[in-house]
């Protein structure tokens, strides 16, 4: 990111990379694009020219860098194609800042994805969680896919509007949340506690963790004190795709919020 931006602003800038992803973002008038980053080494091409023209028409700052500097901005030298773009995302922040601004006794339901490595699944989870109006989705520096072109495409643009909360890792975030009074819930197939049952009443402040399809919630998360939940299924179906599970969870939490208002 450019040093021209203040520290507070940088927290809300999402840097995307790849020529097609950047072109699509610049062509979307609803997105607040702040700076286009180009590598000096880019060869002349129609799409790079088009990207630069879109940025100029929108009065977006254009900055040129050597290849290594551009790679530090995109954080993905192999796939950035010499192009990156800073987009202002009003709901992007950090978990620490979110907790600092959370009003006393204000309800909050957060969601975390533990071991979900597939970018398409991660993007679809972002889309469903955003659509359901969840308070936040943890975005770990390690353990979650980078917000690259595959994630952005699968999110159908919702990542720019998503309540993403950056944190170092899911484990450190869970420890922080439980220390300040959040209840931990883990979703898995083995639990007898039904997420959809009216007898289940989630804590006003809670963090819900979904694991990967292959391994489920990690042993490290399972070792934390918490409660286990399951999504009821029939016809001998054992599990759902994590993106589907995230959608079911997020909209069930929305249903419960709507009933209380």
Reconstruct the topology from this structure:
Layout: H1 7-10, E1 13-17, H2 19-26, E2 32-39, H3 46-57, E3 61-65, H4 67-74, E4 83-88, E5 93-94, H5 95-101, E6 108-114, H6 119-131, E7 136-140, H7 149-154, E8 164-167, H8 170-179, E9 183-187, E10 205-211, H9 219-222, E11 227-229, H10 242-260
Parallel strand pairs: 2-3, 5-8, 6-7, 6-10, 7-8, 9-10, 9-11
Antiparallel strand pairs: 1-4, 2-4
Helix pairs in contact: 2-3, 6-10
> What gyration radius follows from the Cα positions, in whole Å?
20 Å
Secondary-structure element series = HEHEHEHEEHEHEHEHEEHEH
Which structural class should the secondary elements be placed in? alpha/beta
N- to C-terminal distance: 41 Å
In terms of DSSP E residues, the strand content is 15-25%
- According to DSSP, the number of beta strands is 11
- The low-confidence parts are none
Helix content estimate: 25-40%
Distinct helical segment count: 10
Give the mean pLDDT: 91
Shape: elongated
Q: Quick one: biggest sheet?
A: 7 strands, parallel
**Strand order in the sheet with the most strands:** 5-8-7-6-10-9-11
Describe this structure in words.
With 261 residues, the chain is of the alpha/beta class. The protein is built from ten helices and eleven strands. It has a seven-stranded parallel sheet, with helices on both faces. Strands 1-4-2-3 form a four-stranded mixed sheet. The model has no long low-confidence stretch (mean pLDDT 91).
In short:
By secondary structure, the chain is of the alpha/beta class. Helix content is about 35%, strand content about 20%. The model has no long low-confidence stretch (mean pLDDT about 90).
